[in-house]
Amino acid sequence: MESIWSYAAGSGHTEGQDLTGCTVVANDGTIGHVDRQADHFGMRHLVVDTGVWVFGRSVLVPVGMIRGIDPKARTVTVACSRAEVKAAPRFRTDSETMDREYLASVGDYYHRLPPQDTAAG
Q: What GO CC annotations are associated with the protein (predicted)?
């Protein structure tokens, strides 16, 4: 499950890259935008502001779910659906990004998702 917290080799990520403000896109539509990046306990993740899509709440997405980053278009593509992101363990407060148990439950959830077809189209 360690890989869920690391950027995939082909994701287009470069060390030190700031993804704040990038639009986050699932395989079936836009999720929101990156509010911030965090790396607590070696569990790297994005906090994504969903805007009105999920009643103004934010969601936490491990960086291992990133399938592609387009720095020119300022988009981050994740390897899951909007419904899968919405069904992830609920993110309520910023302190949860410092809670090892909460992060582990999020990682476990995303790790158990079925693999997505990367050749969509």
A: plasma membrane light-harvesting complex
Contact between 24 and 34 (Cβ < 8 Å): yes
CATH of residue 47's domain is 2.30.30.240
More confident residue, 119 or 111: 111
Question: Average pLDDT, stretch 3-18?
Answer: 93
Q: Which of 33, 99, 18, 104 is nearest to 62 (CA)?
A: 104
Largest CA distance in the chain: 39
The structural domain count of the chain equals 1
Environment class of residue 51 by beta-carbon count within 10 Å: exposed (0-12), middle (13-18) or buried (19+)?
middle
Q: Which domain holds residue 25?
A: 2-107
In this prediction, residues 59-70 reach a mean pLDDT of: 96
pTM of the model: 0.89
| Domain assignment of residue 73, yes or no | yes
